[in-house]
Amino acid sequence: MREQLNAYVDDGGSCVLFPGGASDLFDSPYERTAKILFNLAVKANKAGDVFPLWGTCLGFEFLSICGAGGGNVISNVDGENYSVNLNLSVGYQSSRLFGSAPEEIITFLKTKDVTFNHHRHCVSTDEYHNNEALKKFYRLLSTNRDKEGEKQFVSTIEAYDYPFYGTQWHPEKNSFEWTSLEAINHSKEAVLVTQYVANFFVDQARLSGHRFADKKEEENALIYQHAPVFCLPEITAFEQCYIF
């Protein structure tokens, strides 16, 4: 009882975000670690223990593979370094991700080039519609075409039965990446889209009951225990990196 009374309580929550990158999605530390987390999240949610997942770019592709039961649903595409509007799918209004969005955010997504793409692989819309497992697991929320306008690919998904979300595009870059080497939209409209997506997923995380055991354990896990390093342009195309 004393341990329960002394348990650290905060207003936070828990989630996992699978980031972009260039790791092998079938044999790499990224894949092996992400698969463990995915399976644990499925198990937790089935037991009524809310635990959200988000996948961006490579993370989106990983979530798609998991939704398809582990099969390879990924194909090549010319999707590097361009910003576009989303082609929202029929019925997006009833989705969790877009259904609660203010009308101005939907207008920006539909009409302005506010979503930045930077990928060589994708889930084609043909693959999505032909793969019953994938189609049953994820709801298709938007599509886009490659830089030449030829190949159509899935750009936004959410799971039907779990708080899992994925974007082939990078919602984080509008606000936080300022390199001139990438065609990122930094307009007011683009930043508002970033803020909406971030707020949405944080609200999803708040639904989770997962907490640190105490304040000290939380402080030890914070990113503030590490110092960012300025990396542009000698090390990476990112301005700042955490190097562990």
Q: Could you please describe the fold and organization of this structure?
A:
A six-stranded mixed β-sheet has the order 1-2-8-7-6-4. A two-stranded antiparallel ribbon has the order 3-5. It has a two-stranded antiparallel ribbon with strand order 9-10. The longest helix is centred in the C-terminal third of the chain and has 19 residues, at 188-206. It contains ten helices and ten strands. The chain has 244 residues and is α+β, with helices and mostly antiparallel strands.
User: Biggest sheet, in brief?
Assistant: 6 strands, mixed
Distance between the terminal alpha carbons, to the nearest Å? 39 Å
Put simply, the count of helices is: 10
- Rounded average pLDDT: 94
Helix content: 25-40%
Give the low-confidence spans: 1-9
The radius of gyration is 19 Å
Give, in order, the helices and strands. Answer: HEHEHEEHHEHHEEEHHHEE
Structural class: alpha+beta
Report the strand count.
10
Largest beta sheet: what is the strand line-up?
1-2-8-7-6-4
